[in-house]
Automatic annotation (TrEMBL):
The keyword Kinase applies. It holds the Pfam family Pkinase. Keywords: ATP-binding, Kinase, Nucleotide-binding, Serine/threonine-protein kinase, Transferase. This is Protein kinase domain-containing protein. Residues 115-405 form the Protein kinase domain. ATP binds at residue 146.
Amino acid sequence: MPMEGISGMEVDRKACLVEQSPACTLDYASEGSESSAGDCSELTLEVRSAEMMTSGAMREGTAKRPCHAAQLGLLGSPRSSRQRRWPAGGSSKAWWLGPTALAGECFHRDFTFVEGGEGLLGRGTFGSVHRCTQNGEGKGDDFAVKVVKLNRYEDRQAVGRERRALEKMKGASCAVQLHWVYAEQHAAFLVFELLENGSTLEDVLNRQKGRRLDCAAARKLCRALLQAVAEVHDNGICLLDIKPANIWISAGESPEQPSRVCLLDFGMAHEFVPGKAVRLAAKSALAGTPAYMAPEVIQANLSHCTHSRFSAFNGKKADAWSVGVTLFQTWFGHLPFQPPFKALDLIGEMSLLHSEWAAAAKEGQSIPTAMVGVSAGESKFWNQVLACDPAERLTASELLQHPFLNEGS
Ligand SMILES: Nc1ncnc2c1ncn2[C@@H]1O[C@H](COP(=O)(O)OP(=O)(O)OP(=O)(O)O)[C@@H](O)[C@H]1O
């Protein structure tokens, strides 16, 4: 059987014939959003792999297997990333990556980690991010690689989600560009464009006096951030982990005039169909950052702890809340809902703070914590941004049009 896009090495029959796990696939497919597109592609993978496993070509060992990104002709110049294609096919070894995933074993052959202080770019919950240099063809080009240890099933899910979402965002400047994924036995290597000349919004705020931007700067930055989030939503993806540490600001002339606002970390991202709720498997709903989680996501977490397997909510509205918390922080220099320091039950504490706030809002009070001196118009704006009821909350694209954020522009 001719295998599209695969060339270079003799087939490794063992690797190609690794058994699929129907149970895992079911779990994986049901874990995603209600997106029929996403689910269909999962099914396609299964059918294709089953064909591969039974095809004469594979059994005879005449087909080739994807092993090495360079051999697949993927490692062109980083500047030609728009033309670069994901390899067709996919290895059954890394079914969790999705239908077009490359399951290479050769990251260390293709790249070298940059040693020393400038080598470590950041650390997150899922892994560490390092600067690396490409070997061979494209030698000397620098990239950022996220190394994710694959200890748990959820780690594979997160890598698969990130890859699928970022494939959809290819070429969009509002999302960090993912070039290649290498899946090894105990770790995945996600090779991204290297973001330089800038920093995360968290670092920008930490450097500012009072950890906030002045009004004009905050308005401009907020609009750029909302534009980025709205674009991701227009592509049918919700992020579910928006926070200052996941927003990259490329340095422009000043923080308020960034040349690019780019979203990082699509490990929680889910595809959605407009008008339909996003469904999260109970376990994946537990990820994310409580201080930025929408009340309905907090409730989904709580209900998971008690009884229900799936949680459903509107992903765009959930993101809009996280954006709202981020805007609030940029504006006022602190979080709107701050759980007690080192609280043992963060989710429970957040739920309490949200219900207090919902009750206060019903009484006609304005947004909590240090809103003294804000105008009625501004207070109304924050109440719409941080409305506990998703139906009353504005989405990113609606916020973008809001007169409060466009004052003086
Ligand atoms: N492409 C990149 N170029 C430069 N630095 C990066 C890049 N990607 C990530 N970083 C740095 O690494 C940090 C961690 O990255 P990222 O948020 O993707 O990891 P994570 O493990 O998914 O984190 P989280 O705890 O948010 O889940 C970022 O805050 C940023 O400082």
